[in-house]
Design brief:
This protein has 159 residues and is α/β, with parallel strands linked by helices.
Length: 159
């Protein structure tokens, strides 16, 4: 059996426009995220752990993901304003554990993190709101060690 760690980098869903940094999700954002989660689940994804930024729009997105995958999201301030790639790298389980985890956060930090994880192997697409960039680690966890699997756009996941 092939052992690997799968990492879903998911940007928060669409939020209500407001003048504050801590905005709740819009109804459209909630519906779009629910569709994305149903799409991922119908394509065989399971989640062992969810880490989310502490900002409200990311926490609400992670809650929708958690409800779909029966998994509780853990708040992680290093996915928000205090983004820390080294710290987040240490949260990713080794391939021998054969787990799938999700990081729910923001642009542009998730995209930049993905680029670093992939090294020069691939330039990932921008991550749209409710988008999911899927990476895999086959041998070890580290910068430049990830393989690009796929990108799911919320525009292409309607059920």
């Amino acid at each position: 059996m092939h052992m690997a760690t799968t990492l879903l980098l998911m940007r928060h869903a669409d939020a209500i426009s407001a003048l504050t940094a801590d905005m709740p999700l819009s109804e459209k954002g909630k519906i779009t995220q629910e569709k994305m989660c149903a799409f991922l689940k119908s394509n065989g994804y399971t989640l062992h752990h969810i880490y989310t930024s502490t900002l409200l729009r990311a926490k609400q997105t992670a809650e929708i993901i958690g409800n779909t995958f029966h998994c509780i999201a853990e708040e992680e301030k290093k996915l928000g304003s205090y983004f820390d790639e080294e710290y987040l790298l240490a949260l990713i389980p080794e391939p021998a554990e054969n787990q799938t985890i999700a990081f729910v956060g923001h642009a542009p930090t998730l995209y930049l993190f993905a680029k670093r994880l992939l090294g020069g192997n691939y330039t990932p697409p921008d991550i749209e709101r409710s988008g999911a960039l899927v990476l895999r680690f086959d041998e070890s966890i580290g910068f430049g060690k990830a393989c690009f699997v796929t990108y799911y756009s919320p525009r292409n996941t309607t059920m």
